Amino acid sequence: MFALPPFSLDAASVQDSLKVLNFLGIFAFSLSGALLAVRRRLDLFGVVVLGCVTAVGGGSIRDALTGTVPPIYLRDETYLWVAIIAALVGFAFGTRLERFERTLSLFDTLGLALFAVSGALGGLALNFGPLGVIFVGTLSGVGGGILRDVLVGAVPEVLYRNNEVYATAAAAGALVVYLLHPHLPSGWVQLAGVSVVVLLRWLSKRGKLRIPVRRLRDEGEESR
Questions:
Q1: Are 35 and 98 in contact (CB under 8 A)?
Q2: Which of 24, 133, 134, 198 could staple 178 via S-S, CB 3.0–4.6 A?
Q3: What would the mean pLDDT of 113-142 be, rounded to a whole number?
Q4: What's the pLDDT band for 83 if we cut at 50, 70, 90?
């Protein structure tokens, strides 16, 4: 019978790879917050604060819900330094960086996937049920963006995002982790969760997958 080879994230090489991707996700999240701050004409301090909140907000929510104190970014300040550097880059080169929207979107997707999976694993470690695992995983992925938008007085982008699959992709990745963890080695479970998030985001970006929006009849009449 075919069996998957052992693949565990306890291996140092796999851990190192995930940590690098995690830093890329933090960098991308912080940069997205910084670029929004630049558009809103915040000063340097505001840009750095908004960038850092976007980068570590989701992880903070995850750690709070799973009882991990202090949060990981306070135990390893490298995460904060990466967020601060990204925010400074956004402040200095904001106009030029907007040309690389596709690259930033890729890093953002990787960050979303990794944080969603790590949040789901935190929920599993505390024996949460399926809804708890999905809730923690989704908030871990999108929490930073929600805090970012609230701070600048905007409706959180993850609630509409032009019908794109974003928060739903994070929820799907967390669900996959929950469903597969009793049957597959840890590394394969996490790889599957990340892959599902990336795939759904890719399909959404290509216009092949959309979240339906309910249009009220009055809206159509008012737009005429």
A1: yes
A2: 133
A3: 88
A4: very high
Query: What are the tokens at 139?
Result: 């908030």
Domain boundaries, the chain: 12-211
DSSP 178-193: HHHTTTS-HHHHHHHH
d(CA 83, CA 87): 6
Apex 24 CA angle, 93 and 76, nearest 5: 110
Read off the amino acid at residue 53.
Answer: V
Give the separation between CA 67 and CA 1, rounded to whole angstroms: 40
Note the pLDDT tens digit of each residue in 16-32.
Answer: 555 666 787 788 888 88
Q: How far apart are CA 147 and CA 17, in angstroms?
A: 28
Q: How many residues does the chain have?
A: 224
The string of pLDDT tens digits covering residues 50-72 is: 999 989 888 888 788 777 788 88
Q: How many helices (H) and strands (E) does the chain have?
A: 9, 0
Identify which of 187, 64, 31, 30 has the alpha carbon closest to the alpha carbon of residue 117: 187
pTM of the predicted structure, to 2 decimals: 0.75
Give the DSSP letter of residue 129.
-
Question: DSSP state, 209?
Answer: -
Rounded Cα gap, residues 204 and 53, in angstroms:
26
Residue type, 121: L
Residue 45 token pair: 């301090």
